[in-house]
Amino acid sequence: MTKTKHRYAAIDFETATSERNSACAVAIINIEDGKVVDKYYTLIQPPGNKYQWQTIRVHGIKPDHTKDKLNFAGVWEEISSRLENRIIVAHNQSFDRSVLKNCMDLYGLKNPNIELRDKWECTLKIYQAKGYRPAGLSACCAVHDIPLDHHNALSDAMACARLYYLSLQD
Questions:
Q1: Which has the closest alpha carbon to 99: 158, 30, 21?
Q2: What values do phi and psi take at 134, rounded to 5?
Q3: Which of 78, 36, 43, 80 is nearest to 62 (CA)?
Q4: Residue 132 to residue 31: CA distance in whole angstroms
Q5: Where are the alpha helices (DSSP H) in the chain?
Q6: What φ, ψ does residue 12 adopt, rounded to 5°?
Q7: Strands 87-90, 7-15: pairing kind
Q8: What is the pLDDT of residues 86-105, one digit of tens each?
Q9: What is the radius of gyration, based on Cα positions, of the chain?
Q10: How many CB atoms lie within 10 A of CB 162?
Q11: What count of Cα atoms within 13 Å lies in the side-chain half-sphere of residue 34?
Q12: For residue 30, how far is the Cα from the chain centroid?
């Protein structure tokens, strides 16, 4: 399969701590020709099911929510299958790409069909280049009337997917 700008995956992670290998939620939205073809969301048990109060305050996910969930390795096949051979988009790509890479490294996971070396498409950078100030996810969504429940991974990924689609229309 070839990668095209009209076939992409928007991804968003939430983390349990400041460690980039502590994913506690992930959402992936697959888009083809402007249409959502798949939505994936799951909670993930972070290492040791440990959280920092600061991150709980941001996203509201607590140890009780993830104590019976699979760890990253347990959801890897679901994540991997939705990202391979696609352009990957995130609102702050350096954060989300780093979380994916660090979680993969922690569990010794690999997939040569997922781009990790090069930067992904970044809607934050795209909208900064368009002159948006501020260009945070909530600010961009407000300008474009995109619904957002900020720091809910599914909502953030969907908003990112829509922002990227809009950027392709210019």
A1: 21
A2: -75, 165
A3: 43
A4: 24
A5: 53-59, 63-66, 72-83, 93-107, 123-129, 137-143, 153-168
A6: -145, 135
A7: parallel
A8: 999 999 999 999 999 999 99
A9: 15
A10: 22
A11: 4
A12: 11
Q: Residue 142's closest CA among 125, 127, 122, 120?
A: 127
User: Is the pTM value of this prediction over 0.70?
Assistant: yes
DSSP string, 7-35: EEEEEEEEESSSSTT-EEEEEEEEEETTE
Between the alpha carbon of residue 49 and those of residues 33, 38, 53, 70, 101, the distances in Å are 38, 28, 13, 11, 19
Residues in the chain: 170
CB 163 within 8 A of CB 141: yes
pLDDT at 24 over 80: yes
